[in-house]
Amino acid sequence: MNAHGIVHKYGDNVDTDVIIPARYLNTASHSELAAHCMEDIDKDFVTKVKQGDIIVANKNFGCGSSREHAPIAIKASGISCVIASTFARIFYRNSINIGLAILECDEAAKDIKDGDEVKVDFNTGVIENVTTGKTYQAEPFPPFIQNIISKGGLLKSIGK
After folding, report:
1. How crowded is residue 110: how many other Cβ atoms within 10 Å of its Cβ?
2. How far apart are CA 134 and CA 5, in angstroms?
3. Tens of pLDDT, residue by residue, the chain (160 residues)
4. DSSP secondary-structure letter at 138?
5. Concatenated DSSP letters for 55-66?
6. What angle do CA 8, 123, 1 make, to 5 degrees?
7. Helix ranges restricted to H, 10-151
8. pTM recorded for the entire structure
9. How many CA within 13 A on the CB side of residue 125?
């Protein structure tokens, strides 16, 4: 399982309210959530993001409420992976539950810049910044989490 895309970079404490503003929480449509993803922190995100792109952020990504809408909006926007120094615990679990790949790697989160091209190997945890040639080591997912993510989420992986 791998990811390869262009980086959209953010700082510390990106909370669920800026990932998907509360005014859009009355919809269950994943495409509608994606259309408003990150708009309060990055108005151009939805026009810049391409299928397979990667979000890189610093510490405490996904803090705030426990809403599952935030990782759904990110995944539905086309993001293949989020790399951060640290994640809010409930966001971390919600991401795995809906099949959004996330990796904690402080060095990568600090070094990688907006617009860099990055490859991720989820089997080994290796993050490669293609732009700079630098590599980083994150903790790889255990096989059961890789299975959940590759199937598209917890509910889709049960019994398969």
Report:
1. 12
2. 15
3. 799 999 999 999 999 999 999 999 998 899 999 999 999 999 999 999 999 999 999 999 999 988 899 999 999 999 999 999 999 999 999 999 999 999 999 999 999 999 999 999 999 999 999 999 999 999 998 999 999 999 999 876 565 4
4. P
5. EEE-SSBTBS--
6. 65
7. 16-19, 30-35, 45-48, 69-76, 89-98, 106-111, 143-151
8. 0.94
9. 13
